[in-house]
Write a structure and sequence with these properties.
Layout lengths: L1 H67 L1 H7 L1 H6 L7 H5 L19 H12 L6 H15 L5 E4 L7 E4 L6 H11 L8 E3 L10 H14 L4 E3 L7 H7 L1 H8 L4 H11 L6 E4 L3 E3 L10 H6 L20 H5 L3 E3 L2 E3 L3 H4 L3 H12 L1 E2 L5 E3 L7 E3 L1 H10 L4 E4 L8 E4 L4 E4 L13 E6 L6 E5 L10 H22 L1 H11 L6 E3 H12 L5 H8 L1 E2 L4 E3 L7 E3 L8 H9 L1 H11 L6 E3 H15 L5 H11 L6 E3 H6 L3 E3 L10
Parallel strand pairs: 1-5, 2-3, 3-4, 6-12, 9-11, 12-14
Antiparallel strand pairs: 2-15, 5-6, 7-8, 10-11, 13-14, 15-16, 17-19, 18-19, 20-23, 21-22
Helix pairs in contact: 1-17, 5-8, 6-8, 6-11, 10-11, 18-19, 22-23, 23-24
Length: about 650
């Protein structure tokens, strides 16, 4: 009897074990599928982000073209040239007449600043107070004054009793900065920090982040260190949000703040060297990176990565008499050689601000971003050996865990903005360094929820957001994609293979993505594996400001809307938001000529005239561009959830 029960129990245990293994294997597969979907979503976000940056970098060619054709612009439109001719204002002219009213209930800073002011700012910003323009401008002028005394590379020493905290990109995410301070303490002479660039853009609180960092630097100039990132650039700010944030928060003094910022950015150091062993730069290196040269470069001449040295700049006498060409506050001198870096020096700074590490040996152009390079482990080893260094710490790339170690431990990426693409997309991190000690990594993730959402919910939200962004890219190239599909549809059936569809998507959009996998989310595929290629554009359309306009015109304007907005923001020097019809026409002609955009002048005139509702000869260009947006009729149910 006992033996029978024992055998029965053994069989039950065996069944239970098999069932547990089945459940365990299913769960592992389920988690793996979720992780794969998460990786696909992150790949979409990253590819679109880098494609935008590539487009931004390509604008540098246009601005060179614009300035090199300046004589012609001046002849056609003298008012435009006058807007580009200004002089830098001094501190007294900017803040001498600004008064802080008694009704102001935000933080009131006391100069010279002290630790109390850091605490005051942090508490005020937690309560969503806005720092008055008077204090913002004073902080900016003081920061510029102190930064001018700093070398290109800050040399930092750690000790057994005093380590160093290194933070990566913050991108205006104030809650992440608060969480870092909560976990690691406020900056002080006993708690030094190094912030490795990209303080601003993308996030909603870039001004607050910048003010906390600058005030901390002014209070502890020997213990708080700042490196310049590729977003400490006034042209980048126009595209990625900081300019808009400033103009929204400081409607009266916004222009003054922007112009002062343009003078501060170039003075931020371009790197740091810790204990003569660790190089800290925002982006990376290239095979031609020369630290000795970078130590000597006049970094203040690096106004913007989008204003490269102008090789074809005219030097005729009439041009020299005009003084300085200024673009939204940044000066290109009448003697361009004295105010611009030589091309090889400019490229050196672009490399350290924009480059990314890769596992492949060698150094090759960073085609993803359009600036800097991809550098392999051999390039890292050669450079470190040459300058007797041990590691590179850099930022610049969102990493799922907040940090990443590569090149046999010689390159560390740290990224401090959590939830960068979407809620739950990534963790943030910072590094603690002590003398002679291995780096310590601290991770976190800001959330407003009392508990973290289940993984499947977070993945679904990210996936939906990523697909939506990708669909907007697709609809902006509808004409080109349709033509590419039809070329491969030899029998005119309206269908092509998934492989043909994927090849067309990658070649037209220029996004290196797993298109075959993404086809499940983007198009209708029949049982034989053929794609109804016109379903690529289902459920969405670009809103047309003029019903009769050709779709190709709408797509072109939508595709270049951000570039055009930047260009016209430069023209709109008084920040009124209004552009004259003549300015619109002249700059469009220059833009279309440089980019070889095939739209007739009469078609642009028609669109512009339609937007001139009150027929006063000017258009609200921001409203004009807002007319071009993608309408999603409805969000399809997520196929992968079934």
């Amino acid at each position: 009897m006992g033996c029978g029960n024992s055998a029965l129990n053994s069989k039950k245990s065996e069944k239970a074990l098999k069932a547990a293994l089945v459940i365990q294997n299913w769960y592992r597969g389920y988690r793996a599928r979720l992780r794969a979907r998460l990786q696909y979503a992150l790949a979409i976000f990253e590819s679109v982000e880098y494609a935008d940056e590539q487009s931004q970098m390509q604008l540098s060619d246009f601005f060179s073209f614009m300035l090199e054709n300046y004589t012609q612009i001046r002849k056609d439109d003298p008012d435009l040239s006058n807007q580009l001719l200004e002089n830098t204002k001094d501190r007294q002219e900017y803040i001498g007449l600004i008064e802080v009213p008694d009704s102001y209930d935000g933080p009131r800073l006391q100069f010279p600043l002290s630790f109390t002011d850091i605490v005051l700012l942090v508490e005020a910003f937690k309560n969503q107070k806005i720092l008055h323009a008077y204090y913002v401008l004073e902080v900016l002028f003081q920061t510029k004054k102190f930064l001018k005394q700093r070398p290109n590379f800050t040399h930092v020493k750690t000790s057994s009793s005093k380590g160093l905290t290194i933070c990566g990109d913050l991108h205006g995410k104030l809650d992440d900065l608060f969480l870092i301070f909560y976990k690691n303490g406020l900056p002080s002479e006993n708690n030094p920090y190094l912030f490795n660039g990209d303080f601003v853009d993308r996030g909603r609180n870039s001004m607050e982040v910048l003010m906390i960092l600058f005030v901390s630097f002014l209070v502890y100039p020997k213990d708080i260190h700042l490196n310049r990132g590729n977003h400490e650039d006034f042209m980048m700010n126009m595209r990625y949000g900081f300019t808009k944030e400033i103009l929204n928060k400081y409607k009266i003094y916004g222009k003054k703040i922007l112009q002062t910022l343009e003078e501060v950015y170039p003075w931020i150091p371009i790197g740091a060297i810790i204990d003569n062993e660790i190089l800290v730069i925002h982006g990376g290196i290239s095979e031609s990176t020369d630290l000795n040269l970078l130590h000597r470069i006049e970094r203040s001449k690096m106004k913007s990565v989008l204003l490269p040295p102008m090789t074809g700049y005219s030097t005729e006498p009439e041009k020299k008499k005009t003084g300085a060409i200024i673009m939204s506050g940044i000066i290109t001198s009448k003697d361009s050689s004295s105010e611009q870096l030589p091309k090889h020096e400019w490229e050196q700074i672009v490399d350290i601000l924009w480059s990314d590490p890769r596992g492949t040996k060698g150094c090759f152009p960073n085609t993803g971003r359009g600036g800097g390079c991809y550098f392999g482990p051999d390039i890292t080893t050669t450079m470190l050996n040459k300058y007797h260094l041990k590691k590179i710490i850099r930022s610049h790339e969102c990493r799922p865990e907040g940090y990443e170690i590569c090149h046999d431990g010689k390159v560390i990426t740290v990224f401090s903005a959590s939830n960068y693409y979407e809620e739950g997309s990534n963790r943030g991190a910072y590094i603690r360094l002590g003398f002679g000690m291995a780096p310590e990594f601290f991770q976190y993730q800001v959330t407003n929820s009392t508990c973290l959402q289940p993984l499947h919910q977070r993945v679904s939200v990210m996936e939906s957001s990523a697909i939506r962004i990708l669909k907007e890219r697709i609809i902006s190239r509808k004409t080109d994609l349709t033509h590419a599909f039809q070329v491969r549809d030899h029998v005119k059936s309206g269908k092509i293979s998934v492989t043909q569809w994927a090849f067309s998507m990658e070649s037209i959009l220029g996004l290196n993505l797993p298109w075959r996998t993404l086809s499940l989310h983007l198009v209708n595929v029949d049982k034989d594996g053929y794609v109804d290629y016109m379903s690529s554009f289902q459920d969405m359309r670009i809103e047309k400001p003029v019903k009769e306009a050709e779709s190709a015109i709408i797509e072109t304007l939508y595709r270049y809307r951000t570039d055009l907005q930047m260009i016209f923001n430069i023209i709109d020097s008084d920040r009124s938001g209004l552009i004259s019809m003549e300015e619109f026409r002249n700059m469009w002609k220059l833009f279309s000529s440089h980019y070889n955009v095939q739209i007739r002048d009469s078609q642009i005139d028609e669109l512009a005239s339609t937007m001139d509702l009150n027929k006063d000869g000017s258009i609200d260009f921001n409203e004009f561009l807002k007319a071009f947006y993608v309408v999603h009729k409805y969000e399809k149910s997520n196929k992968s959830n079934t």
